[in-house]
Amino acid sequence: MGDMSELHEYRVWAPTAARMRVVAGDETVEMSQGEGGWWHALASAGDYGFQIDDDDAVRPDPRSLRQPNGVHERSRAWDASAHGWQDAGWTGRPIAGGVLYELHLGTFTSEGTLDAAAERLDHLRSIGVTHVELLPVNGFNGTHNWGYDGVAWFAVHEGYGGPDAYQRFVDAAHAAGLAVVQDVVYNHLGPSGNYLPLYGPYLSSEGRSTWGDHVNLAEPAVRRYILDNVRYWFETMHVDALRLDAVHALVDQSDLHILEEMAIETAALSAHLGRPLELIAESDLNDPKLITPREAGGYGLDGQWSDDFHHGVHVALTRETEGYYADFEPIAALAKALERGFFHDGTYSSFRGRDHGHPIDTERSLSWRLVVSAQNHDQIGNRARGDRTTEVLDESQLLCAALLLYGGPFTPMLFQGEEWAASTPFQFFTSHPEPELGKATAEGRLEEFEQMGWDPAVVPDPQDPQTFERSKLDWAELQGEGHARVLEGYRQLAALRAELEALTDPHYARNLVEADEQTRVLRLTRRAGMADAVEIVLNLGTEPQTVPVSRRDLRFQTHPDVTLADALTLPPGAGALLA
Q: Which residues bind substrate per the record (predicted)?
């Protein structure tokens, strides 16, 4: 078997197995069963897998750190400590006062790799980004995918460069002063390459979401699997925050909810590592319990998405009112989202057919805990054509959305290319090698779109390679005149956000929102302690408007025809910031 120094210790949780073997290289070694359903053995390092019971099929490791030949093949031992980290001086960056930037590695650059993405970090800094958020990178079947079909939670997709490239990317981000947010999916597993049920009760026999079976949170070892993955990104990969996908699909009847347990372990690890580590939930529950500190009876997560802001902005600018946009038609809906965080806070949701949400305690809660966007991968990619608002909004209207993002009370999140009005769509794409799976995915999407009233005839085939290629950003667009003007607007707003204290003040009570349904003028006044107030005024109507203002210094305008004399004059679809 060779020298002992060349041996690797293999461990795997398989509580229902009567026999386990590890196959490493050319050798097969019987494993010994220890406590709690854990098996272990010493065998040579390299490509390996496990044989369960008397099945001779070699299965990948549930905790595999590398899948060099895809999620169906053998795992490969990987030494994370071989990387010489360069970020010893990095002290972290909390999301409070920050700007997030969501990107998909496969489409962010033409190369579609971590190393290529690292070359664009200076561009992100120029628009005020503090946190680069990567859509899921863990192993999935096929060559390209959004990432939400992942099955190897600890492995970085080889097409992006694998785990070595991931370490280089984090180092590069930290060197550029940027924190890294990793999007992780703990609520379901992808439909291809998921061998976890062969090993043990990873999935629940009770209930499923539209994406698949629920994860079995009643099993302590499965909870540990999730918590160890949280720790892996923070400790081994030096990540600064995790975005937790669709936490409303984490069905947990335990006394200690898995989200609170994550918060407890993350806080402890943060204290140990000496830098801020944060958890941001994607949730459609509109439940402030997620972001209420544990001392006040909440789960203690740091932030959560608020789609109500997106819906309010989208409807105000596009006038689109199909499906879940219907309730956001009046300008008052956007005003309420700006003032109270959630629009649906116990109110009736016509899309859901029931009351929805809970109010935020605006006296005590801090507004930066809500992460908001004018565009994101879901709201673009889950449209029938994956079309951006760039198709229907002009430059001034796009900058109105940016003005509400950078100037509003919440933590802004941009989506790749938004900052230059990218014309490329972001469509839903898959590369399932199994024809029946590709067919089922495409048919499932058509059913979803019927509910939104969208034309199924325009939905691109997710399995068509061109759907993926069309979604890649065209960086040459930055040289185009209109694109450059929008980008310059984002850069100006980033500078103002850094300069004016009122724009990052987290107290709801210091914001005053006024909306006129007749003229469709919205005014947001923001204050911060002893600092001067900032006034943001938008004309969301179809006629020019002249508006009295109390501030006299016009610091930003979305349109060249905005003027300030005795009053502020705004053309339709234009906005201004005054200080």
A: 243-248, 307-311, 377-382
